[in-house]
Amino acid sequence: MSLFSDKELTCNDFLDGRVRLWQPRAGYRAGVDPVLLAASVPATRGHTVLELGCGAGAAILCLLARVSGLQGVGVELQPAYADLARRNAVENGASLEVIEADLNALPANLKQRQFDHVIANPPYYRAGAHSPAADKGRSVALGEETPLTDWFDVAAKRLAPRGYLHMIQKADRLPDMLAGCAGRLGSVEVLPLAARTGRTAELVILRARKGGKAAFRLHAPLILHAGERHEKDGESYTPQVSAVLRDGAAICGIFDR
User: What confidence score (pLDDT) does residue 125 get?
Assistant: First the structure.
């Protein structure tokens, strides 16, 4: 994949302008999912963070903007998106190293490093489960090529003892996620994300800990939009979610209730 030209890009604000993200007009574009993922991580100053499949950098840059004093590393398979992530790191003055590599072929120096946190927003759809997007970058971002189990295997190896993995995925992939944790990570917690009260959760955020021994916890859903139905144009996020998306608020405390 050739690198993007400026005319193929837009620069969009996240966290009410605290993060400015260059991303393709026609390729994979970040929405609220990576922002919610970043908000779920209980990182503190001095921690190290690795994002697997960082794309243009939306999730990890939102985390670095929310918590000062972090050291970030992003791994991205697609050269054009890795290049965008580097550009976005410079744009935002973020301490982010971007490594272009396949998840299952990480460079030797990265294999020698461990991190306090690993985050990931893997492709949502199993191979063959959806129609491929016309844009190659979007197709790779949405359609699974690397088995989900491999994401957990790599994350577990790169986590320091007692380190946390946070992953956002479609709710119907939860059985695969729990299988990925088995024998690798413990203290598993799941936060469902439901569009509205009374709706089935379409996404989940999973937290797991290296060496964790606590019992499995399923939290009450985080409701994204106010009201039981969409009634008018414009945003309808709940105050809690709006604070995450606009002000860089955290939702990691939900896991501690």
Answer: 82
In this prediction the pTM is 0.91
Indicate the burial class of 114 (C-beta count within 10 angstroms; 0-12, 13-18, 19 or more): middle
In the predicted structure, residue 131 carries a pLDDT above the cut 60: no
| DSSP single-letter state for residue 257 | -
The answer to the question of residue 138 being in a domain is: yes
Tokens 């998840």 -> residue: 103
Let me know if residue 160 belongs to a domain: yes
The whole-number average pLDDT for the span 196-219 is 97
Determine the pLDDT at residue 27: 85
Q: Decide if 97 contacts 73 (C-beta within 8 A).
A: yes
Q: Rounding to the nearest 10 degrees, give the CA dihedral for residues 134, 224, 48, 216.
A: -110
Structural domain count of the chain: 1
**46, burial (CB in 10 Å: exposed 0-12, middle 13-18, buried 19+):** exposed
CATH code assigned at 54: 3.40.50.150
- Distance, CA of 170 to CA of 111 (rounded, Å): 28
20-to-14, 59, 108 alpha-carbon distances in Å: 6, 12, 32
94 Cβ contact partners less than 8 Å away, ≥ 6 residues apart:
61, 64, 65, 72, 88
